[in-house]
Design a protein that fits this description.
501 residues, Rossmann fold, 6-stranded mixed beta sheet, 46% helix, 5% strand, elongated, binds iron/sulfur cluster
Length: 501
């Protein structure tokens, strides 16, 4: 990935290489590049899949291919060229608009000009979405060392598309707008996978996929020179793209395999991204007049706050999700490894997210479409996870949704919904009287319900055993004996409103 200065025509100090770099366009003319593209396209019947991020590099690659293929006789335009773009569902809204309208134009112009391009957006599965993981399962906001999002939100959806096309056609060629000048690491990875005597390289993951990088030798100046001099063939204006760069000051690449630079280093990715220290892109957009984005920035900054090492014990669980055990730091550290976000905090986060959605839409102009920050399917999945894993008898998702949005969704009644808030209240009272953790009893009752009526009940005993093996003591008991721990640090007493000021 590259970073550019405010002026898109300014040279970019992207790879820090001291050697003088020679423009690719000085070495090869555009017509030679078009010819290479045509030769590669007509050499076999493997379909092409172009990874399009909406940024300058993938726009350049797509534009070059468009012009090259347009000049082929109709009878040689035989194989499909799929243009795919990952929508993480938490993309910065202005970037989504840019990508969506580009893909629509690509399809419209391809049909009008009878070209073999076909544009698609690819999305993460509901269960893999950002908010289902963050709020539903309590994954902490991603950082450099725990960047759980890129695979789930970007790589897997693109991989699924590639695998689907491989099963349909046998093999595919993936086109990326990657450039060696982006970084030394990028150059090394690209060289590692190259295949001698061909412009193709091996895909780092799939044996039946190959990669073609038509602008691999281009410098950032080549890219902007080209985009400023050659009109966009699908009816867009490349100057609008340059303007978007001036606001965002960077781009998130189309992450299609693990050799692609991390989008987490970029400032042009998801609006929720906490891998970067500050979201310069959103700040610039707000400064440039998009004040309605301010609540989004506040929500992102709230997530960032939870990464403060001093605040981790406020927001994070002591016990791990899978085995319910407390784990001590190793590798010389002292204290406890903080786990998933606490359930109470996740409930607060859901409320805050819905309030953010409301506020953003109140601030947007009347001619702007309603901006949905979390989809109904995600809310339903979060509800399912909470009811199952957190024994959420109070059924907090519909309650919080109703309190904030003033309406109800079409909530399905599931088996787990058999226990109610009233029953939870009675159970809490009885458990407190007898000094038994209410969640332990709820989990056991949920388990019994799940297995109710089953002929074979052997599995339930192992599951009961696993529940009892979890840590059910008080915070003091759980942290006792762990060096460097202060028991009171682990209570949840966050005032989210105060944190956001
Ligand atoms: S932009 Fe940030 S949040 Fe989005 S996938 Fe990349 S690293 Fe994750």
């Amino acid at each position: 990935m590259s970073s550019v200065s405010d002026d898109p025509n300014e040279p970019d100090a992207e790879n820090g290489d001291d050697e003088e770099q020679v423009s690719a366009l000085d070495r090869r003319s555009l017509s030679e590049i078009h010819q290479e593209i045509r030769d590669t396209y007509t050499a076999d019947d493997r379909p092409w899949v172009i990874g399009y991020s909406g940024g300058k590099d993938s726009t350049t690659a797509l534009q070059l291919i468009w012009y090259a293929i347009k000049d082929l006789p109709d009878e040689e335009q035989t194989k499909p060229i799929y243009v795919i773009s990952s929508d993480t569902l938490v993309e910065t809204p202005k970037i989504v608009d840019h990508i969506t309208s580009t893909l629509e134009n690509v399809n419209e112009y391809a049909e009008k000009q009878d070209l073999p391009f076909e544009a698609h957006k690819v999305y993460p599965d509901v269960s893999d979405s950002f908010f289902v993981n963050l709020i539903g399962r309590g994954y902490p906001a991603p950082n450099q060392t725990f960047r759980w999002c890129t695979d789930r939100l970007k790589i897997d959806p693109a991989d699924n598309f590639i695998v689907d096309k491989v099963s349909e056609h046998g093999e595919v060629i993936v086109i990326l707008g990657a450039r060696k000048a982006e970084s030394k690491t990028r150059e090394q990875v690209m060289n590692l996978h190259s295949i001698d005597g061909t412009v193709l390289s091996r895909h780092s993951k799939f044996a039946n996929a190959f990669v073609y990088t038509p602008i691999e030798d281009w410098l950032v100046d080549d890219v902007w020179d080209y985009l400023m001099q050659v009109d966009c063939p699908w009816g867009k204006d490349n100057r609008d793209l340059a303007a978007l760069y001036q606001e965002a000051d960077d781009e998130c690449p189309m992450v299609i395999d693990t050799s692609t630079p991390s989008c987490g280093d970029s400032r042009f990715g998801c609006w929720t991204c906490t891998v970067v220290e500050e979201d310069k892109a959103m700040e610039n957009m707000i400064d440039a007049g998009d004040g309605w984005m301010e609540p989004l920035l506040e929500f992102r900054d709230l997530l960032k706050t939870t990464q403060d090492p001093k605040k981790k014990s406020t927001f994070r669980e002591l016990k791990g999700r899978r085995f319910g055990r407390v784990k001590e730091k190793n590798n010389g550290g002292t204290g406890i490894i903080p786990r998933a976000y606490k359930f109470e905090f996740r409930q607060d986060l859901l409320r805050k997210l819905l309030e953010t959605e409301k506020k953003v839409n109140e601030l947007r102009n009347e001619d702007q479409e309603y901006l949905e920050l979390i989809r109904d399917a995600e809310l339903k999945e979060i509800r399912r996870i909470w009811r199952q894993e957190e024994a959420d008898w109070e059924d907090s998702v519909p309650r919080i949704y109703n309190e904030v949005m003033g309406e109800d969704l079409d909530w399905a009644q599931d088996d787990l919904g058999a226990f109610t808030a009233e029953e939870a209240e009675v159970l809490n009272e009885v458990c407190n009287r007898h000094d038994v953790p209410p969640k332990l009893v709820k989990r056991l009752l949920n388990l019994e319900r799940e297995h109710h009526g089953m002929k074979r009940r052997a599995a339930i005993y192992n599951k009961i055993d696993a529940i009892f093996r979890e840590e059910w003591g008080t915070v003091e008991e759980m942290v006792a004996g762990i060096e460097g721990e202060e028991p009171e640090n682990w209570e949840y007493d966050a005032d989210i409103e105060a944190l956001m000021k």
